[in-house]
Amino acid sequence: MTDKPKxxxxxxxxxxSTTILALAKxxxxxxxxxxxRYGQRHEVELTAAARIAEASSVARHIVVDxxxxxxxxxxxxxxxxxxxxxxxDEIGDEIPVTYVPARNTVFLSYSLAWAExxxxxxxFIGVNAVDYSGYPDCRPEYIEAFERMANLATRAAVEGxxxxxxxxxxxxxxxxxxxxTGLSLGVDYSMTTxxxxxxxxxxxxxxxxxxxxxxxxxxxxxxxxxxx
Length: 228
Known about the structure:
By secondary structure, the protein is of the alpha/beta class. 35% of the residues lie in helices and 11% in strands. Helix 2 links the parallel strand 2 (30-37) and strand 3 (60-65). 42% of the residues are buried.
């Protein structure tokens, strides 16, 4: 047993979520990691999440099955091609086809339910509103709205035992700053995967938005991306 406050950490196996797991531990929380098998084409991320959770000695790691492929509407959950570019400068300003409709709302809802059963009031999610692909559910106003809803929707919050706080420590950081933060905490980014369209053996494509933004973040720190 530990007297540390419990926190639910959304762990995808990617760079951002691995960094927030390290931040939750730094801030004195006992992390409970939650990942999702949602019909994503890059399911290799779940293998990464499992090894990161084990290496980080989380209190527990669960994988929830939610088949968003039934709904489609995204290049990550249907047979729509993942956009590829040569440089970050080619990434457009519009919301890309890799946006999964309501994904963070679904994920946060499950995480909220688990937090309430654990007696936890804190959720950590690695959303980012600077170096990202323009997803509407990564913005500060979205997180603030969900947090307000969460404090109206749960018995623990209404009764005052566990008011809900959603932590987004990366939301205003560049990818380079996120990587710098993680490295200062000893994060091993070679264990992570970010690619939206990896090969069958898990190697990154190197040209999707996630790969390009990640690679630029390492380059801005004078480093090479350790991902395959």
